[in-house]
Amino acid sequence: MVKNTVLLLLPPSGFADEGYRFMKQALSEKGFTVAVASSSGSLITGLNGTKVQPEIHLFQVHASNFAALLITGGEGWLKTEIKGGFDRVVKAFYASKKVIGAVCSGPVVLARSGVLTGLNAVCNPLYKQELIKAGVNFTDKEYVISGKIITGRGAASLPTFAMNYCSLLKT
Question: Which domains are present in the chain?
């Protein structure tokens, strides 16, 4: 499971449907399996009505079981408590030197977890202050790679973000 499985974190509600679908498809086309995890064990509804059943509860996640981590966006992240669950997962992937990708509001999760402090990153400009407040060097580009972490601006940057995320996975 490790080599080709990417863990996709979703908030318990309000994820970005387009980002979820686009990234899942892009990873599938490159031969990766996507496993969805969240703090909710029940059906999660996206901002536009897409329903997703997480395969794994947040507290059952072990970074060693996955090739990489991906956090797509959505307003749900701004209402979700990161400490004590999501941050543990992010820090475990970071400590394991796994590829971590986050797009749109997803980089806010990384920033709140402390793994972006002092690094260059981008997110949807609406959430720019969240990154700056966490000590992140906000860089206004389509995507930014800082070591094994890649961040993307938002829906318009998904094709470029996906291509570069998949390239990092192959290295």
Answer: 5-170 (3.40.50.880)
Residues 83-140 have pLDDT tens digits of: 778 999 999 999 999 999 999 999 999 999 999 999 999 999 999 999 999 999 999 9
Burial classification of residue 155, based on how many CB atoms lie within 10 Å of its CB (0-12 exposed, 13-18 middle, 19 or more buried)? middle
Compute the distance between CA of residue 137 and CA of residue 149 in angstroms, rounded to an integer. 14
- The span from the first CA to the last CA of the chain, in angstroms, equals 18
β-pair type (120-121, 143-146): unpaired
Helices 158-170 and 17-29, axial angle in degrees (round to 10): 40
E runs forming strands in 53-129: 56-57, 68-71, 99-103, 120-121
Strand 149-152 to strand 99-103: parallel, antiparallel, or no bridges (unpaired)?
Answer: parallel
Q: Tokens 């997962």 correspond to what residue?
A: 89
